[in-house]
Design goal:
The complex is a heterodimer of chains A (about 220) and B (about 90). Chain A is mostly helical and about 220 residues long. In chain A, about 70% of the residues lie in helices and about 0% in strands. Chain A is built from eleven helices and no strands. The longest helix of chain A is centred in the last third of the chain and has 33 residues, at about 175-210. Chain A is elongated. Chain B contains four helices and no strands. Classes of the chains: A mainly alpha (about 220), B mainly alpha (about 90). At the A-B interface, helix 2, helix 3, helix 4, helix 7 and helix 8 of A face helix 1, helix 3 and helix 4 of B.
Chain lengths: ~220, ~90
Amino acid sequence: MTARQITDGLQQEREAALIAAILDGEREKFHDLIRPYERQVYLTALALVKNETEAEDIAQEAILRAYRKLASFRGDAKFSTWLIAITLNEARTRLREEKRAQFDSLDDRSTTTGDYTPAALTDWREIPSEALERQEIRTLMKQAVEELPDAFRQVVVLRDIEELSVNETAEALGISIALVKVRLHRARLLLQKRLAPLLRIELKTKRKKNGILGRLPWF
Amino acid sequence: MVLNCRHVWGHISDYIEGTLDPAVLADVERHLATCEICSAVLDSTRNVIILIADDRVFELPVDYSKRLHARLDFVLANEAPEPVDRGS
């Protein structure tokens, strides 16, 4: 058994005990049950709607729904997977209500075409995470994810940002594991292609302004 | 099998996931050892994946958690979870 499986097992036991207590009347324990997933629920909503206020609203609604439907949660899936599925449903319902479905289908079409050739730049390979202290770098990264076609963005958010496994991502989105892998691959190359040249320019500009960055070994 | 760059790009994501078939993995690694472009593509793709997962890129709205728990407080005080609908 791997360390991850042991941690997951302990977490599932803890959650099962919390759920039993909540259903037994200790309702306030729902705060503890949900706390580790607040960020994940918000990001999942944001992956679909791309609007921060709306994503927060969906996150709240999804979490309230999870509370109301808690008795129907069966322990055969992970609580997090169940919660993500509720969030995705909530977000999709919202999109349908706003009649934005036609945009989704346009985006879907773009997942089968397009150029998935990476940017072949050999003069940068790694940007240290300290670069994220800078607002403009964070904005570039965020925009690149937001501008991915819907189907790609959902997979990247669940797998690479929320760090679900490929299987969990497939289960949450109701698609095959093979499709998750294909979309993930294309999305990652698109991100690399988009970000590599931009970050290079951004960091070169910074180097001219700031001698310290210019002396960093990764540049 | 000797792979060209385009073949290797097709395996980048699975290489990062660690799910490549051992025979393909050996071919990819042989190519990466001698191709500066592909090894740079691999490194930068991996780097991009690490960076976008950083909590600082997608920040939660200010007081998101506070608003969520305040709303929960109200609902928890007034509603019990719904009983299971087992169908009939």
